[in-house]
UniProtKB/TrEMBL annotation:
Pathway: Amino-acid degradation; L-lysine degradation via saccharopine pathway; glutaryl-CoA from L-lysine: step 6/6. Belongs to the 2-oxoacid dehydrogenase family. Binds 1 lipoyl cofactor covalently. Residues 95-104 have a biased composition (Acidic residues). This is Dihydrolipoyllysine-residue succinyltransferase component of 2-oxoglutarate dehydrogenase complex. It comes from Oceanipulchritudo coccoides. E2 component of the 2-oxoglutarate dehydrogenase (OGDH) complex which catalyzes the second step in the conversion of 2-oxoglutarate to succinyl-CoA and CO(2). It comes from the Bacteria. It catalyses: N(6)-[(R)-dihydrolipoyl]-L-lysyl-[protein] + succinyl-CoA = N(6)-[(R)-S(8)-succinyldihydrolipoyl]-L-lysyl-[protein] + CoA. InterPro entries: 2-oxoacid_dehydrogenase (IPR050537), 2-oxoacid_DH_actylTfrase (IPR001078), Biotin_lipoyl (IPR000089), CAT-like_dom_sf (IPR023213), E3-bd_dom_sf (IPR036625), PSBD (IPR004167), Single_hybrid_motif (IPR011053), SucB (IPR006255). Residues 2-76 form the Lipoyl-binding domain. CDD domains: lipoyl_domain. The gene is odhB.
């Protein structure tokens, strides 16, 4: 009996994708529930599982574009009996004895030399041998997340996004032996990001206003309560929860910023689902933290960490990316001092955070050193007036410089 492997429906707006990686090859025996391929679409990357056990025959190659509903492989279920009853040859006697000693250990043995394209790409760029990495995938396979963790461990990155001088970051290998450049097709996700960024520039009257915020109060609050916070909630008290709460506070004060244009209508949102921009190896994604007005600082931090882990493992879903009313992006983790973030359409505003630097400031007639962050608010001037944009940013500044305002909602 033969079972077809079919590209499943992935969402209303997705009709095709790129078969990025085969985790198996023609003739391999696959188990029901085993991850056998990786599919890249213009929104997410997802894994496909075998629906039955048997020998697989691949019908498309890595890099091919495949339509939803198309057949990409066939699994021969009748091969199961042959695989099970097959006599071990002399070369496998040693393996058989090992299985008798520890069947579970053998079942988890890591396959050597066969790795998905995403793992091979990271290996080429980092110089790390995938066979030296402990795999957490099925049957001990090395996953992209395993490689990223190995790279981070071998070449740690500081909060500003730079590597230690003693171990400079290894540049990506972009020069082939046959020429001075390489070419590869853009992934669906990268194409969509490029299209949306250009569209945002062309279809909105985007303007950016700036301010600066003294982070002393937030930093003191974190230092004072960090230990108790971690002990109770199991996560660190980060900056992002403060900024998210400050954004919600400002959105309530300036509802025009929480609106969007739909043809000739203005749609004002009465909810506060905030997108948090996350950088991934495949490009920028903006998962959405829901109902931020009713969530605690701890719940917001937990949601952000969960999304960061899902993004790192390539498990962000379409639902995770939909429905945001406002976006926060933090270029400061890469060392950015100032930037003009681009709108995440159809939203009408986005807040850019930047690196914190000690600066001399005048306070009560004296020059003091304070940790200062520049803030940037990009907004659609068709909908948001300059007065509202400036007021919105000032509201965030006040809330961060006096966090008690968030507690009392003033």
């Amino acid at each position: 009996m033969a079972t077809e492997v079919i590209i499943p429906a992935l969402g209303e707006s997705i009709s095709s994708g790129i078969l990025a990686t085969w985790h198996v090859k023609t003739g391999d025996y696959v188990e029901e529930g085993q991850a056998i391929f990786e599919l890249e679409t213009d929104k997410i990357t997802s894994e496909g599982m075998a629906e039955t056990s048997g020998t697989i025959d691949l019908k498309v190659s890595e890099g091919d574009e495949v339509e939803v509903g198309s057949v990409i492989a066939i699994i021969d279920e009748s091969a199961k009996a042959e695989t099970t009853e097959q006599e071990p040859d002399s070369s496998s006697q040693e393996d058989s004895s090992e299985e008798e000693e520890g069947e579970a250990e053998s079942a988890n043995a890591k396959p050597k030399g066969q790795h998905p394209a995403s793992v091979r790409r990271i290996a080429e760029e980092s110089g790390i041998d995938p066979d030296s990495v402990d795999g957490t995938g099925k049957a001990g396979r090395v996953t992209k997340a395993d490689m990223l963790a190995a790279v981070e461990k071998a070449d740690p990155v500081d909060p500003a996004g730079s590597t230690p001088e003693s171990e400079p970051a290894k540049p990506a290998q972009t020069v082939q032996a046959t020429g001075r450049v390489t070419r590869k097709k853009m992934t669906p996700l990268r194409r969509t990001i490029a299209k949306r960024l250009v569209q945002a520039q062309q279809t909105t009257a985007m303007l950016t206003t700036f301010n600066e915020v003294d982070m002393s109060a937030v930093m003191a609050c974190r230092k004072s309560h960090q230990e108790a916070f971690v002990k109770k909630h199991g996560v660190k008290l980060g900056f992002m929860s403060f900024f998210t709460k400050a954004v919600v506070h400002a959105l309530k004060e300036y509802p025009a910023v929480n609106a969007q244009i739909d043809e000739d209508e203005i749609v004002t949102n009465n909810y506060y689902d905030v997108g948090i921009a996350v950088s991934t190896p495949k490009g920028l994604m903006v998962p959405v933290v829901r109902d931020c007005e009713s969530k605690s600082f701890a719940e917001i931090e937990q949601d952000i960490i969960a999304y960061a882990n899902k993004a790192k493992e390539g498990k962000i879903s379409i639902e995770d990316l939909q429905g945001g009313v406002f976006t926060i992006t933090n270029g400061g983790i890469f060392g950015s001092m100032l930037s003009t973030p681009i709108l995440n359409a159809p939203q009408s505003a986005i807040l850019g955070m930047h690196t914190i630097q000690d600066r001399p400031v005048a306070l009560d007639g004296e020059v003091v050193i304070r940790p200062i962050m520049y803030l940037a608010l990009s907004y659609d001037h068709r909908l948001v007036d300059g007065r509202e944009a400036v007021g919105f940013l000032v509201s965030i500044k006040k809330a961060l410089e006096d966090p008690m305002r968030l507690m009392f909602e003033i």
